[in-house]
Amino acid sequence: MRKFLAIVLLTTFSLNANALSILLNGGNSEREVIDRLIGLGHTVTESNAVWWGSDWDYSPYDVVAFQYGASNPTDIDRLVSKVEAGEVGVVFFRAWGAGATATALGMGDGTFNWQYAYNNLDIYDNSHYITQGMNLGMNDLGYTYMSSIPNPGANTTVLAGGTDAAALVVHNSLRVAINPF
């Protein structure tokens, strides 16, 4: 669990000493995501054409990541079963195209929006592993915009938000998170 949760932490807060193998559903490839993850020591396999159907082998990966424009797997139930079995984690970076996957994983109704962040992430809860040690309130991340999820799922915890809605959301029992990017 700690290894997966570090993926969310590493992209916005600090370096991660435990390198992860990440399968990134590219969608509209955002080099910033790839370069940042690689720069932090992680292995990233970008796959724009993978539909991740019933025969896809998730075993080489610690985390499946969806970014803007990423498509849903053709067999969402299989990915959900792998997550429920603890075999892989999932993180969403502005994953507008993967709303059905987010919904199936209990992260909300699949609605992802932009919000103007004024370069700040507002930390609501610093008792969670991901935000542990951070100051409550505004923290400058250097971003102008961040993603938001206006309707987080019932089994989630909102750790932080932007100016309009939740931005950093974790599932309470599954290895799944929505990252503010």
Explained architecture:
The chain is built from 4 helices and 11 strands, in the order H-E-H-E-E-H-E-H-E-E-E-E-E-E-E. It is of the alpha/beta class. Strand 10 and strand 11 (176-179) form a beta hairpin. The longest helix has 11 residues, at 2-12.
Keywords, separated by commas or semicolons:
two-stranded antiparallel sheet, 4 helices, alpha/beta, disordered N terminus, nine-stranded mixed β-sheet, 181 residues
Given the helix and strand composition, which structural class is it?
A: alpha/beta
Low-confidence stretches: 1-15
Number of strands: 11
Instruction: Classify the helix fraction into a percent range.
Output: 10-25%
Largest sheet: 9 strands, mixed
Summarize the helix and strand pattern as letters.
HEHEEHEHEEEEEEE
* Strand composition percent: 25-35%
Radius of gyration: 15 Å
Order of strands, main sheet, comes to 2-1-3-4-11-10-9-6-7
What is the terminal-to-terminal distance?
20 Å
Query: Mean of residue pLDDT?
Result: 83
